Structure formats: structure tokens, C-alpha cells
Amino acid sequence: MSQTPGALRLSCIDESFYRATAAVVAAVLERCGHAVTVIDGSHTEAYEALGRGDADLCVAFWLPEGHAAAWAKLSGRAVELATLYEGARFFWAVPASLPDAIQQIGDLADPAHAALFPKVIRGLSMDATITTASITAVREYGLDKAGFRVEPGDFPAWKASLEEAERDRRGVILPLWQPYHLNALYRLRRLDDPRGVLGGINRVALAAAVGLPQRLPPQTIAALRHIGLTLEAVSEMDAAICVGGKTPEQAAANWLKSQDVNPT
Q: In 10 A of CB 2, how many CB atoms?
């Protein structure tokens, strides 16, 4: 029996670079003849939508480490359908203008270095891996003994901590990730993490509900597996959205046009 395109629901984490990636996936699916509805929400909401069956696909899981705990919770209910790009990672950054002696997370415990920073490290929500991993990093590197703590919060407070430090020319410890447009906007130094608390390099996986790959037309699966995104492309689309004022759909369309992507 031949397979025909059908309507698909795509859940997406509500951060700009995920939205850009989801817009590329949605555009490719639409070129393959599928009607696509994008549902966005927090990490937990996007992942649970896939697990409950409210979404057919999800953008995205960082594997093998970044979102390992969330992925394990969906065991038996989700499968990897395609790797969208490679190289995603979490890290801490400080302004590049700070002393060169600050090269790794553990260096922040030195009293002379600790004095250069506010002791509150702004995080995101508690369902974001960068927040929970940062809390662990404070403990593992003994930064709590120097007075540091991670305060969970939202994007405005997190971003304001960087903007205020830049304006006042003072130190800030920024839990960060790649891809993200801020990496190119500010002169930041990525700190080494010799204990691997924040994890290593990840592939970014498009996940599907169990059974969906068997129902999709082969040409759809082939198109999704040959999208060919890169870390740089996602960062550029993210900048187009956050700095250039483009919608995720516009940023995705421009990238697809530049690549002359043919989903078939």
C-alpha cells in the first residue's frame, strides 16, 4: 500500500534557535505535502506533548548528554528520526576582558577572581538543563564556598545580567550554550569544564512518536534526514530573528533558499 502525506503536529521548545530549527523542519515537511501545526512551549511542555501523543514530532533533543534525562522519560514512546545538526553544547562564559588567568570554572573559586563577580549566577527555568547543570557545577567546583549560587529565572533576567555587566564593565558568569546569537554579539570567553559537569558535544535530534516513521512516506523521511543544518546556520537564523527582526519562518525560508534545498 502506498503511503501518502498527512497532517503532522510538531512540538518545539520556545527559544528562538529552536523555533528557527522547527521552522526549517516545518517548511521541509510542507514541501513534502504535509500540513504542519507547530506547538511551542517550555522544555517540559514540548517533550510531554510528544510523550502524550499530542505531537507527532519534536524539535529537539540534545543527545547523548544534554537532554538525556528528558529523553529517558520518553523511553518506549519516542524514537530518533533524524539528526538535524551536530555540535550543540552547554558552557559557562565570562567577559573576555577579564584576567587571562580565568580559564576554567574552578578558577572562579580563587578569592581574587571571585571578587570580580556578583555571587548570583542567573539561570533559566528549572526544566532547562543549563540551569540544573549549573547548580551542580557550583557544588562540584566548590564555588558555593566562595559564595556563588545559581538563581533560576527567565530570559529577561538572564540576558539583563549580561547587558548590565557589559554596560558597567564588570564581571558576570553567564550559563550559555551553542548555538545562540549572543555568542557573536559579545566578546565572551568560554570556560573549560575539566570535570565535564556541563556535558560534552551533542547531536540535535528530531524525535518522533513511536510508530510514526513506519507511517511516513519514505520521501519525507529522506528529506528530513538530508536537511543539512549546521551550528553556524542555526546561529545565523537565530541572529536574524533576535537582531534582524525576522520571524522564524522568514529566517528558515531565507536559509532554505540559500541552500537550494530540495526535499525530494
A: 4
